[in-house]
Amino acid sequence: MSACADILNRWIDATPWMPRIHQHADVERYYLETVFPERTVIVAERNDRVAGFMALSSDHYVTALYVDDVHRGVGVGSNLLKTARSLSATELNLWTFEANGNAQRFYERQGFSAVSRTDGDNEEGLPDILYHWRGAGGTAMNLAYVLWLLLATTIFLGGATASRAYVSNSHVGVLVLALGLYMVGNIIMVKLMRDGGLGLAISLSAIVQLVLVNIIAFAVFGEKLSLTQAAGVMLGIAAMGLILLPASGKA
Fold first, then answer.
1. % of residues, the chain, pLDDT over 90
2. Which has fewest Cβ within 10 Å: 16, 54, 82, 175?
3. What Å distances lie between residue 138 and 41, 60, 182, 236, CA to CA?
4. What is the CA radius of gyration of the chain?
5. How far apart are CA 168 and CA 201, in angstroms?
6. CA distance 150 to 60
7. CA within 13 Å, CB half, 79
């Protein structure tokens, strides 16, 4: 554990633009008390010494990836990211500082794409960049994920129907049914968020519900869709298709 903290501390000391926010001992304590207990940490060794390490959170973020200076350029970082992809095959996200051009070029060679930037929304106060990698098998989703998503969507629609019925008859049993359906639906959504990522699960669920609600309104209740509603449904279907397509090349 201390070897990983030492690598980070040496990198901070050797990087002119990187401010020293925490003392060496505090960094080591943070890794001992927070990083190792709460995240998946992969350690790379060369010649029986720690050459680098990576920390991966449960929400698909690489929260740390550092390689000791003497071991750079020999594939240590690439192998660590390869391990990260095997642990999180759907997607990976990470932040890197705008001043760290070497890291940006490395991640872009590894198939990551910059998706957003900040002017320094971090404790160092330095501009940074969010990078994203989408796996070839990510939302090119497996059948099980799609079935779970459809089940959650169906349950949410059932909950919405029960809620509407409660407004009409004020029956407590109907209210309990609606709350129960929403609870089960949210439990399934937690599983989907863990498996495929927060943004993916919520986006797909919202699109599917939009499309189905309008289809049900038309087919069951005979409501006519306006041109705007019809366009929204078509855009929703197109968006879902784009999300589900396999990624090729860079994310």
1. 43
2. 16
3. 22, 12, 27, 20
4. 23
5. 32
6. 23
7. 15
Same domain, 111 and 147: no
Q: Which residue has the tokens 């998946």?
A: 40
Q: What is the token pair recorded at 48?
A: 């029986």
Q: Is residue 250 part of a domain?
A: no
SS3 61: strand
Yes or no: say if 163 and 177 are a contact pair by the CB < 8 Å rule: no
- 32 is in which domain, residue-wise? 2-134
192: CB partners within 8 A, 6+ apart: 145, 148, 149, 152, 200, 201, 205
* Average predicted confidence (pLDDT) for the chain: 83
Nearest by Cα to 151 from 203, 192, 198: 192
Per-residue pLDDT, averaged over 49-53, amounts to: 94
pLDDT score of 247:
40
Query: Does residue 77 share a domain with residue 13?
Result: yes
| Token pair in block for residue 196 | 């495929």
* pTM score of the predicted model: 0.57
Per the document, the length of the chain is 251
- Per-residue pLDDT tens for 190-229? 777 666 555 566 666 666 666 666 676 667 656 676 777 6
Catalogue the E-assigned strands of 48-180.
49-56, 62-67, 91-97, 113-118, 128-134
